[in-house]
Amino acid sequence: MYPNSIKNIIDCFKDLPGIGEKTAERLAFSLINFSKEKLTSFSEAIISVRDKITNCEICGNITEDKVCSICNDKERNNKIVFVVEKAKDISLFEKINAYNGKYHVLGGLISPLEGIGPDDININSLISRIKRDNVEEIILTLKPSIEGETTMQYIKKILENKNVKITKIATGIPIGTDIEYIDPMTLEFALEGRKDI
Amino acid sequence: MYPNSIKNIIDCFKDLPGIGEKTAERLAFSLINFSKEKLTSFSEAIISVRDKITNCEICGNITEDKVCSICNDKERNNKIVFVVEKAKDISLFEKINAYNGKYHVLGGLISPLEGIGPDDININSLISRIKRDNVEEIILTLKPSIEGETTMQYIKKILENKNVKITKIATGIPIGTDIEYIDPMTLEFALEGRKDI
Question: I need a surface site. Which of A101, A121, B155, B176 has the fewest CB within 10 A?
């Protein structure tokens, strides 16, 4: 029923996460009202993602160079490394502007169910980096889930007897959230992690 | 903080309706995991919208040809014309598969507040089309709003004494909606339009 160009762009939008048929149609039709210049930029921006974005050789963050801007920053402390699941997670911590160390992107979590083992994610590069840079502390900031816990336990085990402190980010009740909406497991962790006031 | 390619594509996504900063970031990062082929198709699909999509010379529907597939369809009754605001509205009626007439896209509604007058939308082409094709009935399917009503009244007035029946789509309570969620104006229209059972 739609012209082919519209059908195609609807299909492209539907490939994006969280975009269903109706939203894809709405987005496709909105493009019709874009100027030719804007459509050209949009198309070029996608090609630029295709051709320029790569992963940092050191930490796995996204970058347009061999090494990302964070790894390249000599002002940052390379004795502390945040270990995150995805490159996007880095931006969350950078936004709070309270951290001056480095990052390491695993690119996934260990998940026996999905057939993802330790060698499928960037753990080996983390280990060699810890040795090379004499890293003093790694802070595991993986999501509190079975896969996250499995990955953290694995990293802890493999770094046993190496001279590096391993911590993990706190699990607890988010600020501003009513306790009645918190799941039992989070409550349990929050209780376990209680602090003197 | 993000590489330029990512910044650019986030900005492009933010230009789309209903897409805010956070969603744009999520969509941009999802592209990184697309295959090169998929990114190429996405980029080309946008270029194709830019270069191929135009408006049907007769009805204003979107098309890749001079005349859209609906206007070109000799099986369809050209004595009845649905008058809609946007090209996208056509797909809604086509999906219910209950209509075999033609369409006319106004491309907007009369709105003195926004400075949109009768000459800014495709009313003249509608009038000449009614004459040329001896159209017997036009069905106004514009949204029930001040602009919609103004536009309908204008069309009614300008077609006075022309031999064409003018109807409008019913205003009322949507199926499955509890009356308590219906606004007073809709209720008033629904009462006015009551039918014997």
Answer: B176
Please check whether residue B149 is in contact with residue B109, taking contact to mean a CB–CB distance below 8 angstroms.
Answer: no
Domain presence at residue B79? yes
What is the percent of chain A where pLDDT is above 70?
Answer: 100
Mean pLDDT of A166-182: 85
Q: Are residues A47 and A89 in the same domain?
A: no
Under 8 Å between Cβ of A64 and A54: yes
* A77-98 burial: b if 16+ Cβ within 10 Å, else e: ebebbbbbbbbbbbbebeeeee
Asked whether residue B195 is assigned to any structural domain, the reply reads: no
Say whether pLDDT at A181 is over 90: no
Which residues span the domain enclosing B24? 4-52
Number of structural domains chain B divides into: 2
Does A50 sit within 8 Å of B43, measured CB to CB? yes
Which residue, among A14, A22, A43, would best test binding to B if mutated, counting the most B CBs under 10 Å from its CB?
A: A43
Chain A residues within an 8 Å CB radius of B26: 17-18, 88
Is pLDDT of A47 > 80?
yes
pTM of the complete model: 0.81
Q: B49: closest CA among B27, B16, B83? A: B16
Is residue B180 domain-resident?
no
DSSP A111: B
CB neighbour burial string for B106-115, b if at least 16 within 10 angstroms, e if fewer? bbbbbbeeee
For residue B46, give the CATH number of its domain. Answer: 1.10.8.420
Statement: residue A20 has pLDDT above 90: yes
Pairing outcome for strands B62-63 and B80-84: unpaired
Taking the CA of residue A50 and the nearest CA in chain B, the distance in Å comes to 6
Looking up tokens 């936004």, which residue turns up? A95
* H-only helix segments in chain B: 4-14, 21-32, 36-52, 69-72, 87-96, 124-133, 146-158, 184-192
A156 vs B98, which has greater pLDDT? A156
ipTM above 0.85, yes or no: no
CB-based contact B3 A53, cutoff 8 Å: yes
pLDDT score of B93 = 87
Distance from CA of A193 to the nearest CA of B (A): 30
The answer to whether A52 touches B3, Cβ cutoff 8 Å, is yes
Residue ranges in chain B whose pLDDT is less than 70:
none
Is residue A145 a part of any domain in this protein? Answer: yes
